[in-house]
Amino acid sequence: SHEQMKIALEHSFLVVTLWCIKDNNKQLIGFIRAVSDHVYNATLWDVVIHPDFQSQGLGKALIQYTLQKLRQRNIENITLFAGSKAVNFYHHLGFITDPNGIKGMFWVSP
Ligand SMILES: CC(C)(COP(=O)(O)OP(=O)(O)OC[C@H]1O[C@@H](n2cnc3c(N)ncnc32)[C@H](O)[C@@H]1OP(=O)(O)O)[C@@H](O)C(=O)NCCC(=O)NCCS
Q1: In the chain, where are the structural domains located?
Q2: Domain 2-101 part of CATH 3.40.630.30
Q3: What 3 state SS string does 21-43 have?
Q4: pLDDT tens for residues 30-80?
Q5: Predicted confidence band of residue 106 (pLDDT cuts 50, 70, 90)
Q6: What are the CA-CA distances from residue 71 to residues 5, 39, 40, 41, 94 (Å)?
Q7: pLDDT above 90 covers what percent of the chain?
Q8: How far is the CA of 109 from the centre of ligand 1 (A)?
Q9: Is 7 exposed, middle or buried (0-12, 13-18, 19+ CB in 10 A)?
Q10: What pLDDT, on the 0 to 100 scale, is given for residue 48?
Q11: Ligand 1 lined by 43 (C-beta under 6 Å)
Q12: Residues with active-site annotation
């Protein structure tokens, strides 16, 4: 629900939005958020660029800006869950799959 999303955003460590400003109009065109323990780890969620604005380098810029902000806070372990179509996008930005054989695992509620 809307209320649940509000709580999730309020408890995120970092939220970055990207806007297109044109002729007094402001349009939200990009979004990313990170949750974090504030010391060691951060995980990126909800990475999205508006379809009309994709493939122009904005997704790359959004991730790079976010990585810079997290590293300024000395957070070294930055993880994410990539949809199968986004895996190569993240590889391109330096993310690696299964470092040292470590697998991401999920508890799927019964
Ligand atoms: C995935 C997404 C965030 C990428 O943003 P974008 O602004 O379109 O990507 P960019 O233009 O910044 O691309 C950066 C680089 O990655 C490459 N790239 C982009 N999408 C790619 C993909 N799906 N697979 C492989 N490479 C990709 C681009 O060619 C570009 O390469 P370059 O730096 O050599 O020019 C965006 O397409 C999106 O919002 N998709 C729908 C939602 C989604 O899948 N989110 C991720 C959920 S895990």
Answers
A1: 2-101
A2: yes
A3: EECCEEEEEEEEEEEECCCCEEE
A4: 999 999 999 999 999 999 999 999 999 999 999 999 999 999 999 999 999
A5: very high
A6: 26, 10, 10, 10, 14
A7: 100
A8: 30
A9: exposed
A10: 98
A11: no
A12: 90
Question: What average pLDDT is seen over the chain?
Answer: 97
Tokens representing 4 are 């649940």
Residue 107 has a pLDDT of: 96
For the purposes of burial, counting CB atoms within 10 Å of the CB of 32, is it exposed (0-12), middle (13-18) or buried (19 or more)?
Answer: buried
What is the CA(60)–ligand 1 centre distance, in A? 7
State which amino acid sits at residue 91. H
Instruction: Give the three-state DSSP class for 5.
Output: helix
Q: How many residues does the chain have?
A: 110
- The H or E element containing residue 90 is helix 87-92
Other beta carbons within 10 Å of 44: 24
